[in-house]
Amino acid sequence: MGPPAPPRQISRERLLAFQRRAVAGRVPLSGSIALTHRCNLRCVHCYLGDERHAATEGGERDAAFWISVLEQVAAAGCLNLLITGGEPLLRPDFAEIYVRAKRLGLLITVFTNATLVDEAILELFADQPPQLVEITLYGATAGVYEQVTGVPGSHGRCLDGATALRRRGIRVGFKSMILTENRREIPAMRRLAAEQGVDFRLDPALFPCKDGHCGPLSHRIPPEEAVAIEMEDPGYREKAAIYHQRLRDMPPESRLFGCLAGLTGFHVDPAGMLLPCLMVAAPAHDLRKGSFLAGWRHVIPAFREQEVRIGYECHRCEKRHLCGACPATVAMETGTPFQKAEYICRLGGERHRIILEELQKSAAHFGKGE
Amino acid sequence: MTGERAPLPTGGDRGAVCARSTDVILREVAGERILVPIRSGIADLQAIFAINAVGACIWEQLDGARSLDEVLATVLERFEVPASEARADIADFIEQLQGAGLVERRR
Predict the structure, then answer these.
(1) What is the Cα–Cα distance from A241 to A234, expressed in whole angstroms?
(2) Contact A7 B49 (CB under 8 A)
(3) Residue A310 touches chain B, beta carbons under 8 Å
(4) Which of B84, B23, B89, B85 lies closest to B54 in space, CA to CA?
(5) Rounded to two decimals, what is the model's pTM?
(6) Crossing angle, helix B83-99 and helix B53-61, to 10 degrees?
(7) What does the mean pLDDT of chain A come to?
(8) Which of A54, A101, A184, A352 has the CA that lies 20 to 30 A from A368?
(9) Residue A366's pLDDT band (cuts 50, 70, 90)
């Protein structure tokens, strides 16, 4: 055995090898926990729908439960943890759970609306920083923001929370869905993020509520307009083009789910059910009745075994890496994962069209030797 | 860990005692041993520290009570390496850890 290697930062190549080992070994590397589905806002598009303002069936799990789960997932190899909700800062025991997660050596991201950031949270995060606090920002102005959230004063509290976090040196990012309500404020939101020196990401894909209610879909804007808004960000356009070039020649999968859900990814909902990801309801393993490892090894793998059916087109589509379609979210919209969702398909088609134009222009430019 | 750093343990300073930071957690994930600081914000996985098996063994021994000689004895028990070479490697490794703010010398 050679000398001890000096501690050094992980190179990109070593990181890629690490991720390949995690996939090969089915290590539960990245998980999310939803501490609650309750929320203090009433966003018009939220896929949680009425769950935000109702009691969780069977009740939410307490801190002792979450700490036990965190200890189990860390022992199983989890490294990246997302703490989400609803609004996780609604939990009075948030700090107790968070501190334990940090002590287990988990790299933590927190999703929040930032309206409940108080001095205690600021001190906690300043002392033991998360990797990232990602904040939903639905408008640059109070008028638009609160048209989405339905809560007067929430815009100011959101920005105050974000500013307070940044001033304590905590890494913050903004994100938003593209909605009928805020489509015209996206450029202003981008500017606001840039002025504050934080990243800003957009997503036009709204989903039906988990209970099947399709109300959120009425807030979608036409896919061609949504993609035009996305492509106003040159960074996004470039990344999408590189992503498409890298993956377009990959052979189609025979399995229905080609993502990392249930392979290196998992989710635990507020009732304590272990799931492959937060967008699916099955297979599920009750962590009150069985260990994380038992569920990870014996229940969750069934998710990965689902195969495509004859007549299913999406896994062969040349645009599949651009549409963002997930069989789970497609099923929420169409009733089955095997029937494509028209809106999502059009998003992919428009992105594909624009990226191909860009690539053809680049090829023509270099072809002329200019 | 504040103030000036104590002199680093050398190959001859067998009684030196070092302590790993209690704010750094050693994780073994997917064949990688990594040191995860609790009190620094980490932008991505490339900003944390990776060490090998021998390094992890030494890290675990740095409990603020064991002398350098005791750490050496444990390393020799677990790994096939000449004693003189191991002593120098341990001192060098601890120096690296101290430079990264991950350990401090107690005495």
Answers:
(1) 11
(2) yes
(3) no
(4) B89
(5) 0.92
(6) 80
(7) 91
(8) A352
(9) low
pLDDT tier, B6 (very low <50, low <70, confident <90, very high otherwise)? very low
Q: Which of B45, B59, B93 to mutate to test the interface with A (most CBs of A within 10 A)?
A: B45
ipTM of this complex: 0.83
CB-based contact A7 B90, cutoff 8 Å: no
Residues recorded for chain A: 370
CB A72 within 8 Å of CB A293? yes
How far apart are the C-alpha atoms of A270 and A66, rounded to whole Å?
Answer: 10
> How far apart (Å, rounded) are the C-alpha atoms in residues A351 and A37?
33
Cα dihedral sign for B51, B54, B60, B65? negative
Q: Where are the beta strands (DSSP E) in chain A?
A: 8-9, 30-34, 80-84, 107-112, 132-136, 172-177, 199-203, 265-268, 273-275, 285-286
Residue entry with tokens 């069985």: A290
CA-nearest residue of chain A to B32?
A18
B77 touches chain A (CB under 8 A): no
Q: Is B26 on the interface with A (CB under 8 A)?
A: yes
| Cβ pair B30:A21 closer than 8 A | yes
Confidence of residue A315 (pLDDT cuts 50, 70, 90): confident
Tens of pLDDT, residues A197-231:
999 999 888 888 888 888 999 999 999 999 999 99
Q: Which of A207, A292, A202, A303 lies closest to A259, judged by CA?
A: A303
**Phi, psi of B7, deg, nearest 5:** -55, 145
The pLDDT of B74-78, averaged and rounded, is 92
Rounded to whole angstroms, the Cα distance separating A71 from A88 reads: 19
The minimal CB distance from A7 to the residues B38, B46, B51 is found for B51
Q: Judge whether A115 and A143 are in contact, CB under 8 Å.
A: no
Give the pLDDT band (50/70/90) at residue B11. very low
- Predicted pLDDT at B2: 33
Would you give the distance in Å from CA A248 to the centre of its chain?
Answer: 23
Chain A closest-CA separation from residue B32 CA (Å): 7
pLDDT digits (tens, 9 = 90+) for A102-144: 999 999 999 999 999 999 999 999 999 999 999 999 999 999 9
